[in-house]
Fold this protein.
Amino acid sequence: MPHFPFQRLQADLATLIAELPANSRLPSEPDLAKQLGVSRATLREAMRMFETQGLIRRRQGAGTFIVGKVPVLEGGLEILESMLTLARRTNLDVGPGEVFIEQVPADLECAEALDVPEETGLVRVRRTMRADSRPVAYLVDTLPENVLHPEELTAKFSGSVLDFLLQRGDPLTVSRAEISATIASAEVAKMLEIQRGDVLLHFTAKLFTASGSVVDFSHSYFLPGYFKFHVVRRVGAV
């Protein structure tokens, strides 16, 4: 049993959540705070972790409910494939949410990543991916207009920029990604329907062609409780 008060509170909440069946309603915040011997502010902070992991869900005006076991999308990072392809391969019900396509000028970050001058015309594709009736990932791809034009993304767009480029026949060869933990900004929190400051898994990636050009610069934000990534590495010579 953890000895620190906040860790003990999280352990008590974890036990309570595990014991209740899916769709059960938790006691109200005042009652639950009194039951656990903590303030409402402390309780709310502890509950955020379980909400981010998809174990509980707050419904405005109705209360907080147990979600139950959530589907986990698991895949390796050795081969680049879209979330939709991975979901289909693992028989998980994951699909695209609302898609936003906009033309933007290159800021300093995108200009450096895509090796283009600042103010160059870019196309940005923002969308969520949904599972278990909620958004579980927020994906932002930014590409030069000479690589992708908004008119190309018709009603047949599946939600995956990677799949679109592959189906079009683009000579893609490798993706280089940086993986980190981050906290949700106001924009990301709104898209994922979580609290600002919640912890997320963050991929920042560049997609390269055979000629070495970067054609896609992306930020991907994942709710930790819904994703499990692994890497298989060959043991090198000692």
Summary: The radius of gyration is 21 Å. The first strand starts at residue 56 and ends at 59.
